[in-house]
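Sequence in, structure out.
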Amino acid sequence: MILVKKNYLHFNFALANLFILIIGISGYLIMNKIDILDNLKRKFYSETLIFLTLIFLIISLIIYIVLYVKSIKVFKDIDKAIEIAKYGNYDITKSLIKLDNLGNKINELFYHLNQLNEQKTLKISSLSMLINFLLENVDISLLVVDIQGLITHCSKDFLEKFDADVSNILYNNIKTINKLEFDEVLFELDKTREKVIKEQIEISFNNKKQIGVTILFLPFVNIKNQLSNVICIFEKENIFSMTTKKLLSKF
């Protein structure tokens, strides 16, 4: 298995040929300028030098072609494995075996990446279970939405206080339960990174009677300091609970 960068291969091939030509031409010129040799010997050595120069050029060309063809074959095998792996549960190790040591290194890299992905998946699932546990036990009526307005989590207190069905809440857009322009709120949250309070907002579920509420929007950013989620806390009256007031003190 041979893998060489094309630009690196081209450069070295040109450099090697240039070196061979310089040696051959300079040797030929020097031999023809020195008078210590008779004409017959000078002609013999000159022709021998030209012949050796051609031989080395041919050898250089053969080495170049072999390296180039084998490198292309390796890249094709890798591209083929990548393309096939995009469809279904194809075992990429079967294709990587052809790549000898490089294939073994790639397999080792895949193994460690899969281990990391599995650990991340377990961590995410654990955090999801933790979030669900907290939402089941927290005494705050809240929804968690992403920046598209999609409701990803809701608290048990919210469902009980507003007599809502979880199937009509989760994975629906927050715009479906209130007349608030969420895009405007999102723009303000992203700009200020501070809480936003909207009063006298009417919400309804399944075309039931509308309920007037006050909504507190809290921004949450990711590790890149980009707004990723918004927590929406609903209160039927303008007076916030003690738990909500504690949250407000942190923003």
